[in-house]
Design a protein that fits this description.
disordered C terminus, Trna Endonuclease, Chain: A, domain 1
Length: 349
């Protein structure tokens, strides 16, 4: 349904109310700019949605609103036609559960919020990325990368014995620290690369490696030397986790997981606990990163081990497991759907 604001008193009255809200928000914005802006956008999205539902106004009202607000507030750039549609989408996505996310959405930038709602199919997934963005202070590019590599579907999915080997809440935190699979697509390696080459490349690209491992990992060394019983042993990769307050031993396997891998890693964990761990450190955690694993075999291998160990796969290419990929729309599909929705709305005016 088209709209002529010149002869519509209801629209004019509503427009004046919105102008007052903007002016009031500008005063408070100096104290908490982002929070006030996000909540203002929520209100705008709510009112736009409700006005269109109640009055039957078509999308022409968005054009009128964008034009009038731009004339009234020429220095504000947040009230374009496109952004008004984003406000409406923001309201629709969270309208049932806004109390659950109000504090979270107000603590991250608007552009991050738009990316999260555009690429999340569920409230649970959106809340996950809101929390991760806030806790890790992600830039928009990092957020995009984490969404595109399906962090939500991978985090906390490794096979572990943490629930038995660690006390709560350490066991839950440790479990959420691991992923499955890990994506090492930043490495310039062939798919049949050996362990030495993978280790070398991971340490060469340590910044990207730490980003993929997640917040809290501090790199200590590669082929870390331990002397045990007057013999020399070398840990593939050694880290310290600042949140878990423990050493983390990572063993890389260029082929499939074997039960004996868990036994060897258990030996290293005992040694690190005895040689490196101090009274203020928690028990050392071990991670086996392998090209492939059999879930049942890995669970059996960890069942009789008292030290905390996790088993996860890694990938050297950008390929995404089909069981994950099939459940997710591509970014292109999401953007195309959004364009079609807007165009459909314009066609109905």
């Amino acid at each position: 349904m088209g709209l002529s604001k010149r002869y519509d008193s209801e629209y004019t009255e509503w427009l004046n109310e919105l102008k007052i809200k903007i002016q009031s928000t500008q005063i408070r914005a100096a104290l908490s700019a982002n929070k006030e802006m996000i909540l203002l956008y929520w209100e705008f999205g709510k009112e736009l949605y409700e006005k269109q539902e109640e009055k039957g106004w078509g999308n022409a009202v968005v054009d009128s609103l964008a034009k009038d607000l731009r004339e009234e507030f020429p220095n504000l750039k947040g009230f374009s036609r496109r952004n008004l549609f984003y406000m409406k989408s923001f309201y629709i996505f969270y309208k049932v559960d806004f109390e659950k996310v109000q504090q979270l959405v107000a603590q991250i930038p608007w552009g991050h919020n738009i990316r999260i709602i555009s690429k999340s199919r569920s409230l649970k997934k959106a809340i996950f990325y809101l929390n991760e963005t806030f806790e890790n202070n992600w830039s928009r590019d990092i957020l995009d990368m984490q969404i595109e590599t399906n962090l939500f579907e991978r985090k906390g999915k490794a096979i572990t014995n943490f629930s038995r080997a660690l006390p709560e809440p350490n066991s839950d935190l440790a479990n959420q620290t691991l992923k499955d699979p890990y994506l090492f697509d930043f490495l310039t390696l062939k798919k049949d690369a050996d362990e030495h080459s993978i280790e070398e490349q991971l340490t060469k690209h340590i910044t990207q490696f730490l980003l993929e491992l997640g917040t809290g990992f501090a790199f200590i060394g590669r082929q870390y030397h331990l002397e045990i019983g007057k013999k020399d042993f070398y840990i593939d990769l050694l880290f310290y986790h600042t949140k878990l307050r423990c050493y983390v031993v990572v063993e890389l396997k260029a082929k499939s997981f074997k039960p004996e891998h868990a036994g060897k890693l258990s030996f290293y964990l005992s040694a690190v606990d005895d040689i490196l761990k101090t009274e203020i450190d928690n028990p050392t955690i071990g991670i086996i990163l392998c090209r492939m694993k059999n879930k049942i075999e890995a669970e059996y291998a960890l069942r009789g081990i008292s030290q905390p160990i996790g088993v996860a796969e890694y990938q050297l290419s950008k390929s995404v497991p089909e069981n994950i990929k099939s459940e997710l729309p591509s970014i292109e599909e999401i953007e195309l759907a959004s364009i079609r929705a807007i165009n459909k709305g314009e066609d109905n005016e």
